[in-house]
Amino acid sequence: MKQLAKITPVAAALALTLGASSVQAESKLSVSGFIDMSYVTVDTDGAGSETSSGIDQIEVNLGYDLGNKLSANVSVEYQDNGTGEEVDVEEAFLSYAVSDQLSVKAGRFLSYTGWETEEPTGLFQFSGTGYAAFFYGGYQQGVSAYYDGKGYALAVSIVNDLGDLEGEARDSSEPGIETMLALTPTEDITIKGFYSQDKLAGTSEDTTLVNIWASYAPGPLTLAVEYNTSENAPAAVGIAGLDADASGFLVMGNYAFDKFGLTLRYHEYDIETAAGVTVEDNSAITISPSYTVSDNVLMVFEYRMDSNDITGVDSDLIAIEALVTF
Fold first, then answer.
1. What digits encode the pLDDT tens for the residues 152-195?
2. What percent of the chain is predicted at pLDDT more than 70?
3. By the 8 A CB rule, do 180 and 192 touch?
4. What are the distances in angstroms from CA 98 to CA 95, 140, 144, 146?
5. DSSP 281
6. Cα(253)–Cα(262) distance, integer angstroms
7. Which residues, 6 or more positions from 25, have their beta carbon under 8 angstroms from its beta carbon?
8. Chain-centre distance of CA 86, in angstroms?
9. Cα–Cα distance between 43 and 50 in angstroms, integer?
10. Per residue in 49-68, is it b (16+ CB within 10 Å) or e — as a string?
11. In this predicted model, what pLDDT tens digit does every residue of 113-149 receive, in sequence order?
12. Which residues, in sequence order, are bridge partners of residue 222?
């Protein structure tokens, strides 16, 4: 990815905010985005504490109505990923509404898979599980069709490859496919299942990803459960070699009352070699209160306890996050 020179977090934030204000009046152009800031300290057994703070991510999303049921969408992201600052085009695609139920998009877009979203605006807590690279489809380039029926939805994506969460291609020599079936038997219940398959780069082996999640959200309460399996997922192969299998799950609950919210989450995952040897076995408990300062400002607090059953090394994370949306 090409990095843009001499852009600072403050300059980027000002540019995005001022740009959003100046174009909102355009009826065909929509602008949204967020600024994500945090203070994080991690205490690891035998290694002491590490602290980081600053702007983690700034994103602006542009949508333009081209008419005749055609629209264009572009997302530009600034982030400090720990190894340096980057400004990237995260998504860029065209959408066409074939009918009220059927839509098609083409370009670069994020996979539908996963209970936990890639962006902080879709999370109930500060941190993601950390296992998305093993089970979710990531950023993709290709064509996708989505059908929204009564009580169900279907989606099929044919892409260069399943991509990854950094937006890099895994292997473009053969196309990958992602399929989705979603059920909404009531307004409060959602169930989604995904099956994705691709060719592992440089081999004749197939990568398969299975993601299933369900949520129950009556009023202020949200409960969710997710189960994942994968075979030859590139992230797992990098740890365990060919024929690596991974599995993982999460359970979580969130309750919102007035301006306050509280999230409790437990997740774990493991990776096995072809010989059945477990090389990764991680779990974590997350407690995350939140406070809505205004319609555009959310404060999130988190205490997370991670356990690694292979190394026996545990760590504790404390985070304070300010999330500004526009």
1. 999 999 998 886 665 555 555 688 999 999 999 999 999 999 99
2. 88
3. yes
4. 9, 22, 13, 10
5. E
6. 8
7. none
8. 18
9. 7
10. eeeeeebbbbbbbbeeeeee
11. 999 999 999 999 999 999 999 999 999 999 999 999 9
12. 254
Strand residues in 98-243 grouped as ranges (E): 102-110, 139-148, 152-159, 176-183, 189-199, 206-216, 221-231
Is residue 209 within 8 Å of residue 232, measured between CB atoms?
A: no
Is the distance from CB of 302 to CB of 291 less than 8 angstroms?
no
Backbone angles phi and psi of 131, in degrees to 5:
-105, 5
Nearest to 152 by CA among 112, 191, 117, 210: 191
Angle at 233 between CA 225 and CA 283, to 5 degrees: 45
Measured CA to CA, the distance from residue 253 to residue 285 in angstroms comes to 12
Tokens of 6: 């001499």
On whether the CB atoms of residues 194 and 112 are closer than 8 A, the answer is yes
CA separation, residue 253 to residues 115, 125, 224, 286, 289 (Å): 13, 11, 6, 11, 12
What pLDDT, in 10s, does the model give residues 278-322? 999 999 999 999 999 999 999 999 999 999 999 999 999 999 999
CA distances from 3 to 83, 86, 267, 313 (A): 12, 5, 34, 35
Q: In this structure, which amino acid lies at residue 308?
A: N
Q: How confident is the model at residue 12 (pLDDT cuts 50, 70, 90)?
A: very low
